[in-house]
């Protein structure tokens, strides 16, 4: 059996990246409805089957993060999703948090839940074929936000999650997402991202998480969606790399970015530009959700006749991101 460090390295090496297909039932239902597909269990299953059976996906995708429901579903040929991925040489991951919930006394901030019973769930996920896991915490930028208590509460949960996963044999993907919502500048995003990552790595050290057996999944440092001054691709890329150099220890094997609502093309261009920012101690790759699968969902729209075109749309993004690396 591979060690945690070997699995972590496998997830980020050979120019491959991770595909996030772990939308909760609620989020997946709205995405299906947005393209006119009824949000049933079966339609979620079919859509996930479209993704994992995309030809040559394993050339650019090392791992796919699944949701709990998908991990228990089967492809039309009867194989479970983890078994089908294993046949392809793609690692199966599992989202283990139970969502970002309002933080007590802080109506504009959230804390991610899911620690209760996690040790037992990790055991079950390993038995179902998962080799890595994901937990996402979110931080909003605003006047006085994020608050110290939201940062502390979320990094504490991330570090305890990471420890429980490593104890049970799963590589934790640790995802602190500073959201793009708002009109904040690139500099403000950098300041908040730096503070969150510093606090996160202090907490990971306190909880004795092995950094060589985890993957960091941060936001890229970009200006808020509504900021009138959008930085050039090279500037955002350089600022992101500078922020990571300031905060992420070299023993972390890989950093796999979320796309966070950037267009698929822009996320790929940022990833490409970062590879030109000098020697880096970690692999820099992608763990995109929307920026990988968005075009495929738009193309499919629940119509069997669009199946192959939708898989081609996913392939185009996957190949472009691997090339950007
Ligand atoms: P996006 O790339 O769509 O931000 O999703 C990545 C992810 O896994 C969010 O938790």
Automatic annotation (TrEMBL):
Record-listed E.C. numbers: 4.1.2.13
Q: Which Pfam families match?
A: Glycolytic
Task: Tell whether Lyase is among the UniProt keywords.
Answer: yes
Q: Where on the tree of life does the source sit, at the highest rank?
A: Bacteria
Query: Which top EC class is named for this enzyme in its record?
Result: lyase
The pathway entry for this protein reads as: Carbohydrate degradation; glycolysis; D-glyceraldehyde 3-phosphate and glycerone phosphate from D-glucose: step 4/4
Give the record's keywords alphabetically: Glycolysis, Lyase
Family, as annotated:
Belongs to the class I fructose-bisphosphate aldolase family.
The protein, known as: fructose-bisphosphate aldolase
Q: Which organism is it from?
A: Saccharopolyspora halophila
State the taxonomy lineage.
Bacteria, Bacillati, Actinomycetota, Actinomycetes, Pseudonocardiales
């Amino acid at each position: 059996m591979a060690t945690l460090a070997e699995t972590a390295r496998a997830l980020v090496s050979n120019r491959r990246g991770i595909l996030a297909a772990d939308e909760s039932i609620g989020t997946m239902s709205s995405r299906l409805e947005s393209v006119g597909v009824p949000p049933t269990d079966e339609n979620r299953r079919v859509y996930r089957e479209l993704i994992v059976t995309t030809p040559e996906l394993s050339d650019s995708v090392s791992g796919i993060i699944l949701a709990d429901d998908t991990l228990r579903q089967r492809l039309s040929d009867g194989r479970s999703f983890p078994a089908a991925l294993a046949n392809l040489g793609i690692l199966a991951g599992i989202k283990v948090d139970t969502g970002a919930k309002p933080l007590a006394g802080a109506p504009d901030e959230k804390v991610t839940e899911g620690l209760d019973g996690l040790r037992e769930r990790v055991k079950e996920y390993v038995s179902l074929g998962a080799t890595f896991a994901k937990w996402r915490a979110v931080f909003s930028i605003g006047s006085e936000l994020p608050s110290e208590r939201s940062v502390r509460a979320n990094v504490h949960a991330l570090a305890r999650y990471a420890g429980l996963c490593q104890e049970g044999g799963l590589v934790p993907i640790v995802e602190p997402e500073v959201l793009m919502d708002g009109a904040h500048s690139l500099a403000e995003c950098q300041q908040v991202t730096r503070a969150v990552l510093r606090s996160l790595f202090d907490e990971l050290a306190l909880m004795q998480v092995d950094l060589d057996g985890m993957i960091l999944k941060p936001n890229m440092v970009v200006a808020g969606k509504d900021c009138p001054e959008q930085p050039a691709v090279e500037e955002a890329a350089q600022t992101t790399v500078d922020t990571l150099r300031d905060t992420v220890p070299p023993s972390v094997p890989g950093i796999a970015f979320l796309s966070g609502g950037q267009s698929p093309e822009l996320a790929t261009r940022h990833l490409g530009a970062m590879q030109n920012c000098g020697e880096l101690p970690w692999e820099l790759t992608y763990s995109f959700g929307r920026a990988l699968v968005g075009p495929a969902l738009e193309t499919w729209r629940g119509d069997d006749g669009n199946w192959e075109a939708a898989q081609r749309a996913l392939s185009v993004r996957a190949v472009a991101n691997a090339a950007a690396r």
